[in-house]
Design brief:
24% helix, 10 strands, binds FE2/S2 (inorganic) cluster, 2 domains, 34% strand, Rieske Iron-sulfur Protein, four-stranded antiparallel beta sheet, alpha+beta
Length: 147
C-alpha cells in the first residue's frame, strides 16, 4: 500500500470519527430538553407542603395556587370544610375555572364540569379532579400529598 492510499484511508477514518462525534453531540443537545420534559417531577416530603392563610379562602370562594409545579385550588364549600384539588382537567389538561354562582368548576376547553369536591358533573372528563390532603393548623391550611 502506498503513502497516498494510506493517507486517504486515514482521512476517511478521521472524518468518520469526527462525523460520529458531531452526531452524538447534536443528538444529546436535542434529546436533553425532551428528557427533562418527560422526566417525573421530584416530590419530596416536607418541601411538597403548601401553607395558605385561612383568611384567603372565604366560604364559597376558590383560591388558586401552585402545588408541586402544577395549578391547584383550595376552597371552602361549607364553613370550616376545606377541599384541595388539582386544577388540571382530567380530559386533556386544561386549567379549570371556579364559577361562583353555580358552585362548580368549569373547564373552558370542552365544557367539562366538576363539583366543588372534584366529581365529574358533565362533559368529556373521564375522572374526577385529583384531591389533596388539606389540614388546618392554627390559622393556616396545609396542603399535602395526594389522597
Ligand atoms: S380539557 Fe377539560 S373538558 Fe377537555
Amino acid at each position: 500500500m502506498d503513502d497516498v492510499s494510506l493517507n486517504n484511508q486515514q482521512r476517511r477514518t478521521f472524518l468518520g470519527v469526527l462525523l460520529a462525534g458531531i452526531t452524538a453531540v447534536l443528538g444529546a443537545v436535542f434529546a436533553w430538553p425532551v428528557f427533562r420534559f418527560l422526566a417525573p417531577r421530584e416530590q419530596t416530603g416536607a418541601s411538597a407542603l403548601v401553607r395558605i392563610a385561612r383568611k384567603e379562602i372565604p366560604v364559597g370562594a376558590a383560591h388558586f395556587f401552585n402545588f408541586q409545579g402544577r395549578p391547584a385550588v383550595v376552597l371552602q364549600p361549607a364553613p370550616g370544610s376545606f377541599v384541595a384539588l388539582t386544577a388540571v382537567c382530567t380530559h386533556l389538561g386544561c386549567i379549570v375555572k371556579w364559577v361562583d354562582d353555580k358552585g362548580e368548576f368549569l373547564c373552558p376547553c370542552h365544557g367539562g364540569r366538576f363539583s366543588a369536591e372534584g366529581k365529574v358533573l358533565g362533559g368529556p372528563p373521564p375522572q374526577p379532579l385529583e384531591a389533596y390532603v388539606v389540614t388546618l393548623e392554627e390559622n393556616d391550611l396545609v396542603v399535602g400529598r395526594a389522597v
